[in-house]
Amino acid sequence: xxxxxxxxxxxxxxxxxxxFKSATQRTWSFPPSYxxxxxxxxxxxxxxxxxxxxVILDDEYSPSSQQLWEFAIIERVSGRTLINTIIEHQNGxxxxxxxxxxxxxGILPPDENCVTMLQPLRQNLxxxxxxxxxxxxxxxxxxxxxxxxxxxxxxxHQALVDCQQTRLVCMAFDEPCKPxxxxxxxxxxxxxxxxxxxxxxxxxxxxxxxxxxDETLAIDETLAIDETLxxxxxxxxxxxxxxxxxxxVAVEQG
Length: 254
Description:
By secondary structure, the chain is α+β, with helices and mostly antiparallel strands. The protein has one domain. It is 27% helix and 11% strand. It has 7 helices and 5 strands; from the N terminus they run H-H-H-E-E-E-E-H-H-H-H-E. The strands form 2 sheets. A 3-stranded antiparallel beta sheet has the order 1-2-3, covered by helices on one side. A hairpin with a 6-residue loop joins strand 1 and strand 2. Helix 2 crosses helix 5 and helix 5 packs across helix 6. It starts with a helix and ends in an 18-residue tail after the last strand.
């Protein structure tokens, strides 16, 4: 019974928005590893580096067969698509093959160049909160909170779409890390957008004509969170070449 009630609370996007909006009232922090990403963004914007030296990568694959189905790369700063491909497998499944260092090597950037976004988001949105006061951090749940009216909502599990959503989440993460007075207008604490998705209860319990409906979003401390789900994409800082890299965001060191 408790689990069913908990799942019902998590499914309500308005409750999640209240928790998210509360978190944006304060200035967020980021790990030291993220400073390298910020420096690279600045260098690209100043024309000192190519946009392809900081990219977001994503793939879609079958968990059962481990076969890769889609792969996409976009530039972190401009959003320009570099690769968007669907893989057609000519051969059947070989159960003797696997993803392991013995079979796959020399493709991914080293671990020190990978900056996952899950940990910084968790630190600012759920750290120190009890389990029933956290929001889910999977991409399909977090993206609508940050961009509640965006046309990409609901199109997850396509490599290119997930790259595009991840890029926007990364851009949104940078804003609360600034003092409130330095943020873009959309990210001022008093102007965070309201969630657009409605519950069926909105249609079953309409306010009377004499009542003014309160559209403000107050802090709700009852939301339960599933921390087992996370954003699939990572920021990868590639110090060599971005060519042939898979999984994440790459930064090329000249």
